[in-house]
Specification:
Aconitase, domain 4; alpha/beta; 32% helix; 9 helices; 7-stranded mixed β-sheet
Length: 229
């Protein structure tokens, strides 16, 4: 089981940063929270009034805010994440078209900051799935029948858990449910190795450094860089 990090860290060159959410994902076992809703859009995942933060952390407390709390801030006890059975859930199972709506990356940050490592649904919005990939959140598409069965088990079985093996592309529980899922090789490579776009680039850091050493920055560009700082 791997744990998500938070925020950004600086590499040896302070001009380059890499995302701490991007920890290698190989295997994970966690409690399942069943969100039996379709067309869950990003404004429901993280409402727009909470998008003012400039950090990537701290969004978890606002996840599904309008479903979790009333207008006066009172807790809506009937929402699934308030059920004590699911308060330590790290696997979210939802209906089709999860993550639709706007392209806000904050939706992924909120899910990850809350503690989710995996989202399973019959279908996921393309931009949401791409944002998830770049932040180490594994998204899995299963059939509607398989998702319904997982939800049924999560509702009926206390402490119901799924194990996800990204190396084998396999999802299973301890009660006989097992299936495989599809993922392209590049996305799988990135998740297995904890690589976002910057991480992929930094794999070539030696070559980049060698190039910079033989191509010094012109004086006027140094002056411009100093002015921007």
């Amino acid at each position: 089981m791997t744990e998500s990090g938070a925020g950004w860290r600086t590499t040896n060159d302070d001009r380059r940063t890499t995302n701490d959410f991007m920890q290698p994902f190989k295997k994970h076992t966690g409690i399942v929270a069943p969100l039996d809703r379709v067309n869950v859009d990003t404004d429901q995942i993280i409402p727009k009034q909470f998008l003012k933060r400039i950090e990537r952390t701290g969004f978890g407390e606002f996840l599904f805010y309008d479903w979790r709390f009333s207008g006066d801030g009172a807790k809506k006890e009937d929402f699934v994440l308030h059920d004590p059975r699911y308060q330590k859930a790290t696997v979210l199972v939802a209906g089709k078209n999860f993550g639709c709506g706007s392209s806000r990356e904050h939706a992924v940050w909120a899910l990850a900051d809350y503690g989710f490592r995996v989202v399973i649904a019959p279908s996921l919005a393309d931009i949401f799935a791409n944002n998830s990939l770049k932040n180490g959140l594994l998204t899995i598409r299963l059939t509607e029948e398989q998702v319904a069965e997982i939800m049924r088990r999560a509702n009926q079985t206390a402490n119901y858990q799924l194990s996800i093996d990204l190396e084998k592309l396999r999802v299973e529980d301890s009660q006989g449910f097992a299936t495989t899922f599809a993922m392209d090789d590049f996305s799988r490579h990135c998740l297995l190795n904890g690589l976002d776009d910057i991480g992929l680039t930094l794999q070539h850091e030696a070559a980049i450094t060698a190039y910079e050493a033989t191509h010094p920055v012109r004086a006027e560009m140094n002056a411009l860089s100093s002015a921007v700082r």
